[in-house]
Amino acid sequence: MTFVDEVKRGRFLSATCDLSLPFVPADWVLESGIHCQLLQRGVLQITPNEQISTAKDIVLSSGVHGNETAPIELIQQLAEGILLGHIEPVHRLLLIIAHPEAINHKTRFIEENMNRLFKVRNSERNIDCKVANQLQEAVNSFYGVSTAVQPERWHLDLHCAIRPSEHYTFAISPYSHKHSRSNSLFSFIQHAKIEAVLLANDPSSTFSWFSAEYHGAQALTIELGKVADFGNNNLALLAHFSRAMMKLVTENSLPITWNNDVEVYRVSRTLLKQSDDFNFSFPDDLPNFTFFDEGVYLGSDSGEAFIADEKGEAVVFPNANVALGQRAALMVKKAHIIFEEQIRLCG
Fold first, then answer.
1. How far apart, in Å, are the Cα atoms of 220 and each of 70, 170, 185, 187, 300?
2. Is the pTM here over 0.70, yes or no?
3. Domain count, the chain
């Protein structure tokens, strides 16, 4: 059984992660006329037979962190449905299972956090850098060869949190210099019943930021529950998201709507780890979005104390074990948005 044979049978995930199967690029056409192209291991491009007037170019990525398995299962389900003829997308898709080696090792990454490696092309000092470079090339090519006259570019990068959360699902809207916060993107958040959205306030080097900054994509990092092994994910808890993703790829467009069901946060500050003395005052399993009243001691770094800001703050992604110079936590506050063609913060 070849790599391509496995994928044609709908086994995109198993083929991607079976490193004993040599990867060979391939393309073929389904009975429906859908054009399938294997561009890289774990990168499958889908092109509908006919382009609609409201065409989107949509990147759906998973496995940037190898142990975040629920999103990988969702991408596998979507790929299988398309490959076996059960699902017919009306938009161009790039389906990604990003890091098979990390998936096989059941770990976030091998040597370096790959979701910090999308700012520029990396020196290929390890497998994480090599894969990040390959993914940048794949996205550049996908957006660069669009067949639509004025394509609307999207990128949903799917993850799971490594800790519990006050919001089981939430999205991070990366900060970019492009118009990458459309009302259609935020309508998707509501259709998918994502519980909260966090608006970043500085450029980053994440995969979704890469697509927003360099390609003007409507981009989100979406956290779907908590890390678990394959087979132990309760995908029923992600049913709303799965249905919305299906509608995103199979319907011309989703209704534009916003009724404030989604909690909105803004980043108030970013805590960077500057020394090996960095520490938090709270336990490692503290849930994301835990709120601290004004004046509460949060931790310290080289003698500098971190104190909860005026009117209090919540913490997201706290991790004292990151590399020096990397983000150890985001401190956030609730906010409100102005729902226009491009989303803006109130005040």
1. 17, 10, 9, 13, 31
2. yes
3. 2
